Amino acid sequence: MTDTARTTTNAWRNWAGNVSARPVRAVSPASVAELAEVLRQASEDGLRVKPVGTGHSFTATAATDGVLIRPDLLTGIREIDREAMTVTVEAGTPLKRLNTALAREGLSLTNMGDIMEQTVAGATSTGTHGTGRDSASISAQIRALELVTADGTVLTCSQKENADIFAVARIGLGALGVVTAITFAVEPIFLLTAREEPMTFDRVTAGFDELVAENEHFEFYWFPHTGNCNTKRNNRSAGPAAPLGKVSGWIEDELLSNGIFQVACSLGRAVPATIPSIAKLSSRALSARTYTDIPYKVFTSPRRVRFVEMEYALPREAAVEALREVRAMVERSPLRVGFPVEVRTAPADDIALSTASGRESAYIAVHLYRGTPYQAYFTAVERIMTAHAGRPHWGKVNTRDAEYLAGAYPRFGEFTAVRDRLDPDRLFGNDYLRRVLGD
Fold it and tell me: Does residue 116 contact residue 99 with C-beta atoms inside 8 Å?
């Protein structure tokens, strides 16, 4: 192994603290050539390899007992092509660094999730998405990617080059190789007006189709044990910019959404009986607000309260019925749920293992405060989701296996065939991939 690839042996733990691993070694290659050498050495030593991002997945998708590849030296923008309107970025670059760098250049991604701590490769490999009527996940904005395969080959994949691999590798689960660079489509920076407004559960579910149709980006949160929701509509705006005031923004996003919420979660975990009262209070404390800013400042927000999450993608027409079933289940159970349930949408896309592959989708995400026993709640929700042909988010807690997933994804076999070709010896395998992809 070259001297420049930093090697450490520290144990790895994900952001939520529910997954940990003790690799034989952890390596930070500084170049694609170094990475290829790390793979060759691991193969020689009979060790499996997993690249890891910032650990924002709640599954063991990145866990390994072999060689853990940290991408912290594979960061930065390689190229901005203003003619093609693309940016090529190293795989370990955090989304927040990409967003701020693009903004300085007067550019932006079209859509994004609500957290931007993840690396670009980690976020896209697990299918991270926001909400959108017409614009899809971050992976759907990929125009090309660079992939180092098990034998050290460096492949450039796009619709023109290695198109069969490109069709599956945009959401590759780390199963096909190590992504070292990604080329995203970008557009000139624009303004979004966000309109946040409390709404009753009955009103938002009755008007769900209209709210989705009328807004470029619609999402809402339902507070369990209440009939209250908070809605968010993001639409493009001619301006002028009217960002949140420093003080009011801090009160809403830091004090209420992170500080007081942290205290409420801690209290709820210690005394679960208080949760319904806290939910009623907190859902009523929300007030309507409107602001206009550049995309990443509207789409994303800080998440300092740590949680565990499960999310399912459903056919969009099944979303309201499934959510009503979740509400009925919570009401008749002894469960005490202190975290809001999040509902978002996405158009159909053409990526083999995208949760929106070939169908318009709605997402229902359930969360519990870190350290709270989550199995009973998540199991009950998962039962509802699978009855509606749900597809679990690849980076969030689920119990599905390859047999279920092969039935949920029409192009599942296309993915596994490419995997068999690129990684026949399962250098990039682990227990999670064995469960969801089979052997």
Answer: yes
